[in-house]
Amino acid sequence: MATIGSVVWGVRDIPRAIDFWAAALDYELSRPPDVDWAMLVPHEGEEGVQLSLKLTNSEAPHRHHLDLFADDQEAEVRRLVALGAELVDWDYEDDADYVVLTDPDGNTFCVVQV
User: How far is CA 25 from CA 4, 32, 70, in A?
Assistant: First the structure.
């Protein structure tokens, strides 16, 4: 059975993506980043999926998506916006348990109330 080892996230600015995603997820670099690649992991001893950041020059829509689970969705959305995320004008269904945001590189992700 396969398991997720890493989510690969296409970005246009590696240092900016490292700053945002490390702070958003409370992750750290697993090793010094390359010019076109970085790997973020949970702090030592913590569990979680690796997030790999890959430099891309493509302006095409990104084909990836993360759902971040939060006990206090409203507070988490405020925290992520303060870090540089932006709210997306989205057509939510009436019982939506998620909020759609973009990271500083324009990649969409959701914050889901758990």
Answer: 17, 18, 11
Per-residue DSSP letters for 4-56?
--EEEEEES-HHHHHHHHHHHHTEEESS---SSEEEEEESTT----EEEEEE-
The pTM (predicted TM-score) of the whole model is 0.82
Q: 61 exposed, middle or buried (CB, 10 Å; 0-12, 13-18, 19+)?
A: exposed
Give mean pLDDT in consecutive 10-residue pieces for the chain, a chain of 114 residues: 80 96 96 96 89 87 82 96 96 94 92 92
CB atoms within 10 A of CB 2: 4
Of the candidates 102, 77, 79, the one whose C-alpha atom is nearest the C-alpha of residue 89 is 102
